[in-house]
What we know:
The chain is mainly beta. The protein has helices spanning 105-110, 256-267, and strands spanning 2-6, 9-12, 16-21, 32-41, 52-57, 60-68, 71-75, 80-83, 88-92, 97-102, 114-122, 133-137, 144-147, 150-159, 162-163, 172-179, 184-186, 192-199, 201-204, 207-210, 213-217, 224-227, 231-238, 246-248, 251-253.
Amino acid sequence: MIRFETEGRPSNIGFPVRRLLPGPGLRSVGPFIFLDHMGPARFQAGTTEGDVRPHPHIGLSTFTYLFEGAMQHRDSLGTAMRIEPGAVNLMTAGRGIVHSERFPADLRAQGETVQGIQMWLALPCSLEECAPSFEHTPRHALPCWVENGAHTRLLAGEAWGARSPVTTHLATFCAAVELEPGAQISLPVWPERAVYLLDGTVHLGAATAHGPRLLVPETTGEVRLVAHTFARLMLIGGEPPDGPRYLDWNFVSSRRDRLQAAREAWQAGHFAPIPGETESIPLPGTD
């Protein structure tokens, strides 16, 4: 019942990250072309340890969801938004945006743990050069329910008869799920879908899996997932984008030449800056 599975690639970028997409054997799932599990991590008080300095994006939407802690988002549109567990930050880069992601001083002082998911979604070709935008959806605005030991929060798209208010540009679904031992959930039927099992043990059809692991079911039809232990999941899927997408550093496009143009623009300082921020991450290979 499992067509593909991977533990991803652990790394440390100032805090631990597990990269699930893209990777060998699986480049994307529906519109999702990038998936990182961030943390869990704690950061020293009075430092900027772990902060992600200003950096650019084009041709994608970034999707941030936290399980623990908090992050402070700032961008070149002038947005300043703190995200906390249960909310969604969606930033659509379009023709170009710059943002930073920092860990707040109060969180550092209290020794709080930070853990979350960041994903990138492809934009349809017609919107790759749209005006950049930012959208914050608070926890209380997202559909959530508990049924037979399954705690579900619908983060984006449509599933199980519910709809999230988060903007999507391609047919999408994304949900955060917690399962008590013995609880089960039916996976929504979409052309492409995957289960990221953060922790716990589950049965997916006749197969058994232990987290952390990204799982792609063998069939696109009805599949039931049953928790053997307490388990935390991210469910993602939807329609694939309208053609291949190419990734280069923080840039995504359906055109390879656009990626090179974005690299040159960042190196030349042509992206709009974040108000009040003077740092930046240099183009790889130039620092």
